[in-house]
């Protein structure tokens, strides 16, 4: 058995599998930085994934499908933002409601649109660097045999790091999550900053759903995200709400996800529960190890109310 | 009138008697006699009604079946286990003019509230379409007296109350294994499972035995996506990629929605390996040959057909003989192999036909292994390295 081929495949598929998680977790990190906990990512991903799939199928264009996902995410994220900022609704309840609604609506629409049919998209093309993969052993396919969306998503996520830390917009987002009263006192609308952050989180969540469905899988199924939206919340915290660390955490999760089956195929005596258990075990261990470094924004999950803000802060 | 009702009436009469002020000794004796006679009547009623508490009158005597229900853990359109059960029951319902109620996407939590809701709709039979409902449904049937059908739990059967379907598809899976053994060019065949429920385990061992019989030097790569990952298409795709990297050119995949993740992994692999013999897929339960993209790589499928079992159950319920084990096998058409458009060698067709004859004549005995440990042990025996 060619163990290097198995290792190369595990790494390559891990990179691809980590991209939707990376995008969703980065969006969640931005929202949490602004003080908004969004438990509705799963629902956003599902709705956006379904719409992206339909658009890609109808237009025969992956690019247009990929654009449709973030648009859906923008609408959903903005709606979520309005509910938790202006309406001051409970973030946890609205988030759970959004996930339930997104799950149900996407399943319902899929059945209405496609019935018993299961259309499949072509996912084999769009790899500009594939010819280089054979020149580098083991990690070659992981580095070069990837869809162009993988590279674009990685670059985009990494660029968001400096945006959060070195721009005025990033400073406002972070300040709103730590001390919204101070932001308010400076004459800046807290709810507008939070709304912008939740909209951005929605865009990234929608893009995550679109990438999962259109690029990674090439099809939509009801519940296709299989909990990725919730894992993204853990990854955002594990990555300390920093895009670079979130990206690394997503990659590690993807590798752990592929490692279990890889060990099975290589003949290691591991049970059928092991592949499923390993990535989650990894997250728990990592959270435990990094427990002193995982600091949540001070105002996370708390609606801002100027009347009571002084004592809250 | 139930025992509880009679007891309540007796207590009510006692209370009203006392409240009316009947406190004389004579009245007390009369009251005591009255209570004793009521107690005797109550004891007789209990004795008479005891058998009825064990089995409902309807099931014992037979009833006209007007409506049946099916409960499924996942979507009725998952093109797998759940859809096949629902579609088959609806077909039977249409043929017999019986209403069919479907409760889907129930997962594997406690489904008792849903069962109670269905019972309140006066359904005559509930098909509990998951091995994960093996415990809850017989308990519900015993408590509420509504007949149920469970999957792969013959110990649970109770006359008039609980019937069992044995989806022992190991025989058809054996034929699929024979086909794979004859068709593989690399000599490596993969099995990808989305859990280890009895139904998947039966097929895994049957397939492995067929593969071994047809190609003793074959290598089998057995991999699990994880327990209960029937619809996790992304994880199934990742696992299948790894199986393909190990050199498998035929993949026997057991999943519902997750099967499409396996199919996409194979499609992409074939697109990126021009000039190589294409990898092919063996599906289970449903027929995906109508899907153009899937049909291009679908070697066969182990088909399940519950219609005969469902029809017989309804007939048994009406005849008062409900509560048996209904086994789906090759001989009764409960399981079968799908013929697809892919060209297979004539030697393969002949080998499969010979294996079928051997199974039907009893010359070939396919193991029936439902537990995960038994599967691991049997696979180690068949493919030690």
Short description:
The complex is a heterodimer of chains A (313) and B (385). With 313 residues, chain A is mainly alpha-helical.
Structural class of chain B: alpha/beta
User: Total number of helical segments of chain A?
Assistant: 13
- Give the mean pLDDT of chain A: 91
Number of strands of chain B: 12
Written description of the protein model:
- The complex is a heterodimer of chains A (313) and B (385).
- Chain A has 313 residues and is mainly α.
- Helix content of chain A is 72%, strand content 0%.
- Chain A has helices at residues 3-33, 41-59, 62-85, 91-114, 140-144, 148-166, 168-178, 180-185, 190-217, 228-238, 243-265, 274-289, 306-312.
- In chain A, helix 1 crosses helix 7, helix 2 (41-59) packs antiparallel against helix 3 and helix 10 packs across helix 11.
- The model of chain A has no long low-confidence stretch (mean pLDDT 91).
- With 385 residues, chain B is of the alpha/beta class.
- Chain B has a 6-stranded parallel beta sheet with strand order 2-1-3-4-5-11, sandwiched between helices. Chain B has a 6-stranded mixed beta sheet with strand order 7-6-8-9-10-12, sandwiched between helices.
- In chain B, helix 1 runs antiparallel to helix 2 (25-54), helix 7 packs parallel to helix 8 and helix 8 (198-214) runs parallel beside helix 14.
- The longest helix of chain B has 30 residues, at 25-54.
- Chain B is globular, with a radius of gyration of 27 Å.
- Residues 1-31 and 46-59 of chain B have low confidence and may be disordered.
- The interface between A and B is large, with 47 and 46 residues.
């Amino acid at each position: 058995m060619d163990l290097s081929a198995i290792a190369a495949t595990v790494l390559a598929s891990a990179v691809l599998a980590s991209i939707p998680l990376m995008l969703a977790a980065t969006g969640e990190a931005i929202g949490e930085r602004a003080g908004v906990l969004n438990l509705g990512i799963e629902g956003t991903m599902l709705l956006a994934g379904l719409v992206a799939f339909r658009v890609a199928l109808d237009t025969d264009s992956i690019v247009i499908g990929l654009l449709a996902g973030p648009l859906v995410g923008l609408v959903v994220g903005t709606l979520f933002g309005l509910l938790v900022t202006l309406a001051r609704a409970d973030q946890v309840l609205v988030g759970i409601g959004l996930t339930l609604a997104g799950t149900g609506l996407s399943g319902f629409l899929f059945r209405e649109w496609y019935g018993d049919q299961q259309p499949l998209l072509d996912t084999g093309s769009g790899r500009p660097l594939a010819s280089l993969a054979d020149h580098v052993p083991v990690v070659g396919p992981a580095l070069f045999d990837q869809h162009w969306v993988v590279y674009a998503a990685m670059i985009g996520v990494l660029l968001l790091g400096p945006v959060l830390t070195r721009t005025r917009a990033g400073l406002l987002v972070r300040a709103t999550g730590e001390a919204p009263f101070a932001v308010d006192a400076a004459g800046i609308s807290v709810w507008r900053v939070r709304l912008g952050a939740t909209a951005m989180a929605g865009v990234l969540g929608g893009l995550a759903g679109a990438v999962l469905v259109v690029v990674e899988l090439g099809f939509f199924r009801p519940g296709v995200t299989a909990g990725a939206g919730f894992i993204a919340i853990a990854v955002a915290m594990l990555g300390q709400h920093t895009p670079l660390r979130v990206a690394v955490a997503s990659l590690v999760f993807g590798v752990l996800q592929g490692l279990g089956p890889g060990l099975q195929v290589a003949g290691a005596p591991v049970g059928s529960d092991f592949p499923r258990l390993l990535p989650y075990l990894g997250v728990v261990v990592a959270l435990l190890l990094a427990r002193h470094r995982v600091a949540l924004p001070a105002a996370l999950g708390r609606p801002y109310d100027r009347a009571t803000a002084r004592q809250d802060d | 009138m139930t025992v509880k009702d009679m007891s309540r009436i007796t207590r009510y009469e006692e209370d009203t008697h006392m409240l009316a002020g009947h406190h004389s000794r004579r009245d007390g004796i009369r009251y005591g006699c009255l209570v004793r006679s009521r107690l005797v009547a109550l004891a007789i009623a209990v004795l008479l009604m005891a058998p009825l508490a064990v089995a409902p009158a309807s099931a014992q005597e037979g009833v006209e079946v007007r409506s049946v229900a099916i409960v499924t853990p996942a979507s009725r359109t998952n093109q797998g286990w759940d859809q096949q059960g629902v579609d088959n029951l609806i077909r039977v319902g249409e043929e017999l003019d019986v209403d069919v109620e479907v409760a889907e996407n129930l997962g594997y939590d406690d489904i008792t509230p849903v069962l109670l809701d269905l019972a309140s709709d006066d359904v005559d039979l509930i098909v509990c379409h998951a091995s994960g409902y093996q415990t809850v449904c017989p308990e519900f049937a015993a408590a509420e007296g509504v007949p149920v059908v469970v999957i792969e739990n013959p110990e649970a059967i109770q006359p008039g109350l609980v019937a069992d379907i044995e989806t022992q598809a190991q025989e058809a899976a054996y034929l699929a294994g024979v086909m794979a053994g004859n068709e593989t060019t690399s000599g490596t065949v993969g099995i990808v499972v989305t859990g280890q429920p009895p139904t998947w385990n039966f097929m895994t061992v049957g397939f492995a035995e067929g593969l071994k019989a047809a190609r003793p030097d074959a290598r089998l790569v057995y991999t699990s996506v994880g327990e209960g990952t029937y619809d996790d298409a992304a994880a199934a795709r990742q696992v299948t990629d790894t199986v393909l990297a190990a050199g498998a050119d035929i993949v026997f995949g057991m999943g519902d929605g997750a099967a499409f993740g396996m199919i996409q992994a194979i499609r992409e692999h074939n697109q990126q390996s021009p000039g190589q013999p294409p990898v092919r897929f063996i599906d289970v339960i449903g027929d995906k040959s109508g899907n153009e993209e899937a049909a291009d790589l679908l070697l066969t499928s182990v088909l399940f057909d519950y219609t005969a079992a469902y029809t017989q159950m309804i007939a048994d319920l009406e005849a008062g003989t409900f509560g048996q084990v209904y086994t789906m096998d090759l001989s009764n058409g409960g399981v079968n192999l799908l013929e697809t458009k892919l060209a297979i060698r004539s030697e393969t067709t002949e080998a499969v036909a010979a294996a079928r004859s051997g199974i039907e004549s009893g010359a070939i005995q396919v193991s029936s292994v439902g537990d995960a440990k038994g599967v691991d042990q049997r696979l180690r025996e068949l493919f030690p390295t």
